[in-house]
Amino acid sequence: MGKMNDIVSIMQPYSIYIILAMAILLMILMIYIIVINRKIKILSKKYERFMKGSSGDNVEDILSEWVDKLKMLEVDKNQLKHDLSKLRQNQELCIQKVNVTRYNPFENMGGDFCFVLTLLDAYNNGIILNGLHSREGSYIYAKPVEEGKSKYKLSEEEMESLSKAI
Q1: Cβ(157)–Cβ(116) under 8 Å?
Q2: Fewer beta carbons below 10 Å: N end or C end of the chain?
């Protein structure tokens, strides 16, 4: 208790100055609080205006809606990728390679009235159609093709058409 009395006795002649300094410091702090409070109000108004948006919609709601749309687009994109992959697989099985070779198998007939039509997919699987036209009638023969070869004997014209198609 003795030390406390010593401190009080030393400070007593300067108490008016200490109180005055504290009052000035308090006034400065009050002014600082008022300035900060005003800046916070201005920022709050700007934030509310920003969040409200120009159309009156809430920016948070707008952003949330766009995120939902992006998620839906991602799902759609993945579905399109899957569909495109299936289409590519199916396309390989479609007719992609075609050749028509016309020829005249009979010396006594004029013109190339006969034909060989070769239709193949990407894997060289398909069919060879040979159309023969003579005075007695017209005939069409079909021969299957697997991996660019037929298990049936091919004529010279059929071989030519198959090699051109491949």
Answers
A1: yes
A2: N
